[in-house]
Amino acid sequence: MAGRGKALIFCSASNTIDPKYNQAARELVRAACLHGYDIVSGGTIKGTMRHVAEEAEAMGAVHEGILPRFMQGLEYPGLTRTIWTGTMSERKELMREGTDLAIALPGGIGTLDEFFETFTLARLGRYHGKVIVFNFDGYYDDLRGLLAGMVEHGMLDQESFEMVSFPATVEEFEKLI
Ligand code: AMP
Q: What is the average pLDDT score of the chain?
């Protein structure tokens, strides 16, 4: 088991996704916990976030949830720590603080917003954790293709592109952490 660290999870808040994504999220969270990571997330009872929270709780892991105050009432009741922020921007800032991994699970625009902000900060040397995109079932093939296209067009440098890992399975994820 690796030393203790904090794994930040970005994921879907939607309740209408294929359950395979929630199952894969649970397996990844279990692996992170077994490797000694505490979990940090958006902390709500919505979508994949609820599955992340239930799995972290079942694993007995420390789980910090960071929520904007306007989401009061949506917080998962079993969080170890619930931290309230004034805005979504502040939330993203606090979510990243002190984390060693930032992992985007399959998600929608909120997840992509969190991923892109974190990737941009990593590129500028303002985020020092590993940036990981869980490419379960090829969900993020298009995102990887978009970024590779940016490299081809000179819009993104190869070194920055390589800051992001795209594990397709939990086993590949475990090799990165
Ligand atoms: P999405 O990927 O669009 O489902 O948005 C989920 C991600 O964005 C999560 O990681 C949350 O931190 C944040 N987020 C956006 N909308 C919500 C919401 N309605 N409830 C909770 N978190 C949300």
A: 97
Question: Ligand 1 centroid vs 11 CA: distance in angstroms?
Answer: 7
Task: Report pLDDT digits (tens) over 58-97.
Answer: 999 999 999 999 999 999 999 999 999 999 999 999 999 9
Count of H-run helices and E-run strands, the chain? 7, 7
Among 21, 49, 116, residue to substitute to test ligand 1 (most atoms within 8 Å of Cβ): 49
In angstroms, the CA 64 to CA 45 distance is: 13
pLDDT at 3: 52
What residue ranges line ligand 1, CB within 6 angstroms?
10-14, 42, 44, 46-47, 71, 107-111, 114
Predicted TM-score (pTM) of this structure = 0.96
Taking only the tens place, the pLDDT of each residue in 11-52 is 999 999 999 999 999 999 999 999 999 999 999 999 999 999
**In angstroms, what is the span from residue 15 Cα to ligand 1's centroid?**
11
The structural domains of the chain, ordered by start, are 5-176 (3.40.50.450)
- The answer to whether 157 and 122 have CB atoms below 8 angstroms apart is no
Q: Which tokens go with 6?
A: 């904090």
Q: Say which residue the tokens 């999220």 belong to.
A: 25
Taking the CA of residue 113 as reference, the ligand 1 atom at the shortest distance is: 8
